[in-house]
Design a protein that fits this description.
The protein has about 220 residues and is of the alpha+beta class. The chain is built from six helices and eleven strands. It has a four-stranded antiparallel β-sheet. A hairpin with a 5-residue loop joins strand 4 and strand 5.
């Protein structure tokens, strides 16, 4: 961007803080603007007609969330919701300001679409898991991702949150986790799951070789 464009966006940006569990955005409510996460984490998800949630991807510290500015992208027509996973601080760039710079500088528009394309690959990976993987495989992958995100073998996550993450229901997740505990793979606690066997690997994975996230 030119110095004038950078200064214009800097003068337009505002800081917002969202508490854990706060619903920040849904497509039908309009365009909030582009969010750059300073600290915390956002969850982008969709909900089925039966009320079942599935997490499409997360936006972590240092990343931007373009779907909160989906009005800038005509090709985004599906309804998504965004919530704060934990207390999250973001820089909000209003859509009107971003649109003005986008019209002047096509590289800004290219950057937004490039970021959206990268996130779309994560959405496809999520769809592959839901369609082709068994529930224990999906849980193992989700726990592995949480271990990397929390940087600990003792994960602060409930069965309900895990079910939302993989697009299942709590009863099924709890039953599978109980089986995994009996096998000595995890230890269950109130609001916590401890990974005991870090060498556990997902077997019979139909997507083997397409993604490295197949073990604790």
């Amino acid at each position: 961007m030119t110095p004038n464009q950078s200064a214009f966006l800097e003068n337009s940006v505002r800081t917002e803080v969202f508490l854990a569990g706060k619903l920040i955005h849904r497509s039908e409510e309009g365009c909030r603007g582009l969010m750059a996460v300073i600290s915390g984490s956002l969850r982008v998800y969709c909900v089925s007609e039966e009320g079942r949630e599935v997490t499409l991807y997360r936006v972590e510290s240092g990343e931007i969330c373009v779907l909160s500015a989906s009005c800038l992208m005509d090709s985004i027509v599906f309804d998504v919701l965004i919530e704060a996973v934990e207390e999250t601080r973001v820089l909000m760039i209003p859509s009107a300001a971003l649109h003005k710079v986008e019209q002047e500088n096509p590289l800004v528009e290219l950057y937004i679409y490039k970021n959206a394309t990268e996130k779309f690959s994560e959405v496809l990976w999520t769809i592959q898991q839901v369609l082709f993987m068994k529930i224990d495989q999906r849980i193992a992958l989700a726990l592995h991702d949480e271990r990397l995100r929390q940087k600990s073998d003792v994960l602060s996550i409930t069965h309900e949150d895990l079910a939302k993450q993989i697009g299942s229901v709590r009863e099924v997740v709890s039953k599978t986790l109980k089986y995994m505990e009996e096998e000595g793979l995890v230890r269950l606690g109130r609001g916590k799951i401890e990974i005991l066997d870090r060498d556990f690997k997902v077997e019979n994975d139909p997507l083997a070789g397409q993604n490295s996230r197949g073990e604790f």
